[in-house]
Amino acid sequence: MTRILVVLMASSCLSCSRQVTTSKAAGATSNEKVILIENSEVRKRLKGQATLIAEAVVAADFEKVADMTHSTALQMTGGRAVTVAYQKKARQKTIESGGKIEIEKIDEPGGIVESRSIYYSYVPVTARIHQTAPRQVLLMKSIFIAISQDGGQNWKFVDDSGIPFREMIEKIFPDWPPNLKLPPQENPVVVDGKS
Questions:
Q1: CB atoms within 10 A of CB 27
Q2: Contact (Cβ atoms closer than 8 angstroms) between residue 88 and residue 43
Q3: Which fold has domain 18-192?
Q4: 158 CB neighbour count, 10 Å cutoff
Q5: 3-30 residue pLDDT tens
Q6: pTM exceeds 0.70, yes or no
Q7: What is the distance of C-alpha 33 from the center of its chain?
Q8: Which residue among 20, 23, 53, 121 is least enclosed by CB atoms within 10 Å?
C-alpha cells in the first residue's frame, strides 16, 4: 500500500508558556536554548490540525494535503505537482482494486519543543488499510512530524512512514531539538485476513 506524506496548516493562537531545559539544539550557540512548550491550547491545536490533514488524506484531497505539506518534504518528493499526481495515481489504483484507507486513531501529540523560534513535535496516527491483493486488513502506525514557525498557530506535518526522513532529519531540519525523541517506527500489522 502506498504510504502517504502529509502536512497541515491551520488556525489561531494563544500565547505559549515555556519551560527552559538545559539541552541545546544542534548548531545552537550558548545563548540558544531548547525550550519545552507546556501549553494545552497549542497541544489541542496541534492534534486538531493533525486530524484535519488525516481526514484530507482519507478523502483523497491531495491538493489540500500538498497545501499543508512542509516545503522541504515536497521538494524531496519532486515538488507539489509531482507529489499530487503520484498520490492521485496511487489512490486510483487502490480504489480500482477495491482497497481503501481509514483513520483508526490519532493519538495525543508528543512533547512540543522550541528550537531557534521553531516549534517541533509529532503526532502518532494509526490507519486501517484494506487491501485486496492479498485480501487483508492492516493497521499501520506512523508518526506525523510536526513543525510550526509561528508559535504553534499553524503546523505542517511530514508522515515519516513512506520516505526515510528519520535518517535525514538533521539535514531536513538542522535545528531539530536533540531532546525531542520520536517513537520507534513500526511495521504494519495484519489484523484481519479478510477485508
A1: 12
A2: no
A3: Nuclear Transport Factor 2; Chain: A, (3.10.450)
A4: 26
A5: 333 322 222 222 223 333 333 344 444 3
A6: yes
A7: 24
A8: 20
- The 10s digit of each residue's pLDDT in 167-181 is 778 778 888 998 898
Closest residue by Cα to residue 120 from 32, 37, 20, 3: 37
SS3 93: helix
